[in-house]
Amino acid sequence: MCLEKALQHGSSDAGTLRIEPDVVGTIAGLAACEVPGVTGMSGVSLVEMLRKSNLSKGVKVTVGEREAAVDVYVILDYGVKIPEVALRVQENVRNAIETMTGLAVVEVNVHVQSVAVQETAPTSRVEAVT
Predict the structure, then answer these.
(1) Are 112 and 72 in contact (CB under 8 A)?
(2) CA separation for the pair 24, 27 (Å, rounded)
(3) What is the phi-psi region of residue 24: left when phi exceeds 0, alpha when psi lies from -120 to 50, beta otherwise?
(4) In the chain, which stretches have pLDDT less than 50?
(5) What's the pLDDT tens digit per position in 47-84?
């Protein structure tokens, strides 16, 4: 069996290939966080985001033999255009999963759980004393 055909079917003469849902979830989580305007994944603490641990949190994946369906739960920056960011998340997640796993992504559902307001540094205020 040629390599291309084996990859499509997830098996070859040497054995089978099975990609666990956690692997697909990690790929989806990282791809979603790469999109500008995404603050993070829902349910992931800032420490986990900085350590890049628990990357499949905020992602729900259903993986079949050749297809995957993904739900991502994101927190967006306040002020972004939500439909545009959500579309970019869908595209980035789909491309990352299809490129890295060979699975066909049938749907990427984006759930915007919250918006995060960036804290600004307090402005110093100088008052004239008379």
Answers:
(1) no
(2) 5
(3) alpha
(4) 1-3, 5-6
(5) 565 566 666 788 999 998 899 999 999 999 999 999 99
Please write down the HEC assignment for all residues of the chain. CCHHHHHHHCEECCEECCCCHHHHHHHHHHHHHCCCCEEEECCCCHHHHHHCCCCCCCEEEEECCCEEEEEEEEEEECCCCHHHHHHHHHHHHHHHHHHHHCCEEEEEEEEEEEEECCCCCCCCCCCCCC
Other beta carbons within 10 angstroms of residue 130's beta carbon come to 3
Does this model's pTM top 0.85? My answer is no
Burial readout 14-29 (b: 16 or more C-beta within 10 A, e: otherwise):
eeeeebebebbbbbbb
Q: Torsions phi, psi of 34, nearest 5?
A: -75, -20
Closest C-alpha among 70, 85, 91 to residue 115: 85
57 half-sphere exposure, CB direction, 13 A CA radius = 14
| 73, 40 Cβ separation under 8 angstroms | no
